[in-house]
Specification:
Length: 178
Amino acid sequence: MYLFFILAELVFLIGASLYLISLSYSWLSGAPYVATKRKSLAKIIEHAHIQDGQNIIELGSGDGRFLQAVAKKYSITGLGVDVNPLPIFKARFLARIQKISTIKFKIQNIKDTDLSNADLIYAYLLPKFIKTIESQLLKQTKKGVMIASHAFKIDYLEKYLVDTVKGETFKTYFYKMS
């Protein structure tokens, strides 16, 4: 019995260490893992005007809760992108147990993500990081794409702002590219 507790403690410590390392890595990469509150998701999804058949990209997806919530309600295809492997593994696991096969999650730098086919881009990123993807958002996105930025305004998209939604903790800003 004593050996079992020692092994359990060891597994816990290794898991906690890996989790802290992955959080540190994502923080140093410019996109710390902070999940969108579940209570805010319904309101955000409602204001995003999602339709069946759309292609949605979640930048800084973490555990993928936005894409999963959308995929439960609409027939969409989706891609979640994050540099932090642990939340991505969690997102893949949750999608699998919920039998959601139309969304995928990649461990990838957001700067390497092709945004050209997206109908909706959802991002929960720090302003400093949003600034680093400016050329991607302005040059790679197609006309009519909706960009939803949770918690932080995107100053360089101000002229495209079409809606602002107050959530549990933060506002979400919606930009329609023309």
